[in-house]
Specification:
Helices cover about 75% and strands about 0% of the residues. By secondary structure, the chain is an all-alpha fold. It has one domain.
């Protein structure tokens, strides 16, 4: 794996803050999926709002760009799902970078062959 890609993967998945954020998003995604597939509602459900709140503000940037292309683009699942995934990854990397800046890029010492 190239060094830059390895660095980005470590930023997105290699610290507790990013892992906690990703776990929170996964729980919200499961909640939305269960609510959408198995719960009958008289009106529309607002369960999907949680994913948008967890991916704000980057999802709103993607939505603004999509609106410039056309409203039908932002309403399609082919645009919305990749935008949500990219928003989550961008924010996980941002959290990882923030943690790295706070800790000075130092890692906890581990014993050899542990």
């Amino acid at each position: 794996m190239p060094a830059r890609l390895t660095t980005l993967v470590r930023l997105a998945f290699g610290n507790r803050a990013a892992q906690g954020y990703l776990a929170l998003v996964a729980v919200a995604a499961v909640y939305v999926a269960v609510d959408t597939l198995f719960v009958h509602h008289e009106d529309a459900s607002f369960a999907g709002i949680w994913l948008f709140l967890l991916t704000a503000p980057t999802i709103f940037g993607f939505m603004a760009v999509g609106t410039l292309i056309g409203d039908t683009v932002t309403e399609s699942a082919a645009f919305l799902y990749p935008a949500l995934v990219l928003s989550v990854l961008i924010q996980a990397m941002a959290l990882g970078l923030f943690v790295r800046l706070l800790t000075g890029g130092q890692r906890a010492a581990r014993p050899h062959k542990a």
